[in-house]
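seq:
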Amino acid sequence: MGDKDILIVVSKLKAYVKEAHGMSTSGTVPAVLTDYVKKICAKGADAAQNAKRKTIMDRDFENASSDSGSSLVVVSKLKAYVKEEHGMSTSGAVPAVLTSYVKQLCSHAVEAAQSAKRKTIMDRDFENACSASSCGESENMGSCETAY
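struct:
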């Protein structure tokens, strides 16, 4: 995955993890989080299509909460991705919902890294902390309580 495909603002992600959790972030984390964001967007697109809309809205995400802080998602890339992959538009509230999901995923990854006695979160911490089935691929909530 090239830099142009990353939907995460890397500098803001690293700053958030450092400030909120006192940990570092490996270079592979943004790509992993981008994959999760894409899976979550696919669920949102399905919900919007089922509601016969062409715009993905915050209400299309189960258990959605909105983050009022700075977005960790590159809005222009997100909108382009959703348009290209799903042929839909994205409401202005979606990046805040996705930022909330990203922060939750990071919290789970931090717990996994701390359990492994590391100060850097790595891509494998997301596998251990939050299985793909609990973040967008099934109705099973698994270890991510609000991410589907």
